[in-house]
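Q: Could you predict the 3D structure of Uma2 family endonuclease?
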Amino acid sequence: MGEPARLRRLSPEAYLEEEARSPIKRELVEGVPYAMAGASRAHNLLVGNLHYLLYPLARRKGCRLYVADMKLRVGEATFYYPDLMVVCAPPPENPFYEEAPCFVVEVLSPSTEGIDRREKLGRYLALPSLKGYLLVDATARRAELYRKEAGEVLYEAFAEGAVPLPCLEDALPLEAVYAGVELEARPG
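A: Sure. Here are the predicted structure tokens for Uma2 family endonuclease:
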């Protein structure tokens, strides 16, 4: 029998310091670092299409658009790397994370879907600045939008047409989101 594994907890400061030097991207959840998995071709193409479509809309509104490498602080000791995030608020003092996005996008893959739908959904929607959270499926042509409106969270699913973009006051055509993307096969 081997030695039991020890759960390693990090302070936010230690995490940020280690992450700046680490060759591996890790998210921090309640002080515990978790290595991130690599992404599929479909995932990367979807993120690229979304960046291409969202960038001019974000710039027009005077906002910043981040892709995959900017951390989002969602709690005292929790940091994620969203696939995309739009931030219109002034940046925090620390140049290695944001705190107040108005829109966050995660591309779903079989290995991350549960975390994106449960853990991240609750934490993102708890951010006062957030107006919308978009889940884009890499295995089926489908996008799901959670948006805050008049103190409520509204949910809509889209398989065609255009997805409204809270805080950017525009819409995202699904045809363009999925252009050139061969969807992943669902395991099983």
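Q: Anything worth pointing out?
A: The chain has four helices and 13 strands.
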